[in-house]
Structure formats: C-alpha cells, structure tokens
C-alpha cells in the first residue's frame, strides 16, 4: 500500500473507531456505570482510559510529527515513499481485546476525575488532533521519523503507524465495552 492510500486508510479507521467510541456516550448512566461481574472497569472508566491513553500517545505523536517535518527539510522523502510498506497485519492484534498481555502504566488508569461530558469532548478533540497530524504530514513526512513501540513487540514504527496504533487501542476497548453491556441484559 503506498503512503497516500495508507494515510487515507488510517483516516477512515480513525473515523470509524472514534464514531463507535462516541456512541457509547449516548448510553444510560446505569449502563455506563455498570460494574462487571469480574470486577473490571465500568464503561465510563474504559472511556476515561481511552482518553488518557490517547493523551499520552498524542504527546509522542506530536513530538514525532515535529521531528518528521524537521527531517523533511533535510532529507529526501522520495526513497522512503518508494520503499514504504504498511503492514496492517503486524498491528492487528493491538485492536483485539485480550489478544496479548498488556500492562498499562498507572497514569493511563482511570481515576474518575472527569465526567462523561468532559471525557467525550476530550476524545472528540483527540480525534481532530489525529486528523490534523495526518493532514500536516500529507506528503509522506511521517515516514521520516520512527519511535520504538514496545507493546506487542512492534519495534520501530513511523508516525503514521503510531496514529494507527492509537486508533487500534480504542478499537480494542470497544469489545470490552460490548462485553460489559452484554452482562446487563
């Protein structure tokens, strides 16, 4: 897949995922605050976790995009574009709930400091940030900077792949929220 189709694919994935996440805010409070039988997070806590994870991933994405754009002025992006290979399969497990052990840092655990409106507005803004970075790097700039991703041993990934990772992380938790809701019925 060439980089321009890759960017379009990530934009589409983000829209679908964030639209699906946003639908959960329309649920009744009883559903949002239902405590699963296994003692896991409520849907509202999962939504807060998505927000918190996005917050920290976007810090890295912002730094990566700045460095990639700086590199764009000093490096030739054409060889990177020519040799670009976007391996979606390498990332698929990230979007699957419980596909592998994932130990998250404590700062990404929900604390209950925000209400559902605040979480929702923050997630909407985070979606817009992702689109902004993709637009900012629409010429392949995101290929010019890589960061190591230790989750599921992904290794060095470029800025576009980092944004895709963010979207997959949210997708992962859609399944978890559906499982919670199924327990209520």
Automatic annotation (TrEMBL):
<dbReference type="InterPro" id="IPR024775">
    <property type="entry name" value="DinB-like"/>
</dbReference>
<dbReference type="Pfam" id="PF12867">
    <property type="entry name" value="DinB_2"/>
</dbReference>
<protein>
    <submittedName>
        <fullName>DinB family protein</fullName>
    </submittedName>
</protein>
<dbReference type="InterPro" id="IPR034660">
    <property type="entry name" value="DinB/YfiT-like"/>
</dbReference>
<feature type="domain" description="DinB-like">
    <location>
        <begin position="29"/>
        <end position="177"/>
    </location>
</feature>
């Amino acid at each position: 897949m060439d980089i321009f189709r890759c960017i379009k694919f990530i934009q589409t994935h983000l829209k679908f995922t964030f639209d699906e996440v946003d639908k959960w805010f329309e649920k009744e409070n009883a559903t949002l605050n239902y405590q699963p039988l296994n003692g896991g997070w409520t849907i509202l806590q999962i939504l807060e976790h998505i927000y918190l994870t996005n917050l920290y991933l976007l810090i890295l994405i912002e730094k990566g995009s700045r460095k990639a754009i700086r590199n764009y002025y000093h490096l030739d992006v054409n060889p990177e574009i020519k040799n670009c290979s976007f391996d979606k399969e390498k990332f698929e497990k990230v979007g699957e709930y419980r596909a592998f052990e994932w130990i998250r840092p404590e700062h990404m655990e929900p604390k209950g400091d925000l209400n559902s409106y605040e979480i929702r507005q923050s997630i909407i803004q985070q979606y817009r940030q992702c689109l902004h970075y993709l637009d900012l790097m629409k010429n392949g700039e995101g290929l010019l900077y890589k960061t190591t991703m230790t989750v599921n041993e992904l290794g060095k990934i470029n800025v576009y792949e980092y944004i895709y990772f963010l979207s997959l992380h949210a997708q992962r938790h859609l399944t978890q929220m559906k499982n919670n809701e199924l327990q209520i019925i």
